[in-house]
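Please check what follows.
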Amino acid sequence: MPSGPTLDDLRPGDQAVVKAITGASALRGRLLEMGFVSGTELRVVRLAPLADPMEVELHGYHLSLRRAEARTVLVERR
């Protein structure tokens, strides 16, 4: 299984590239449909007051993810 930093490790302003998704097939499919495909550049916009969820920008739009979901997205920091 691949390892490394995950989207959950990033803070507001951090940029990264998606490397892989490690979650269960249903979650994996949903994240792929939202644009989290390998090679996609993204930026963490902000964290909610209690740090969950987090807002991410990718493909020109913003979306919110739970931290548990973000933990399944392996990234490479930029």
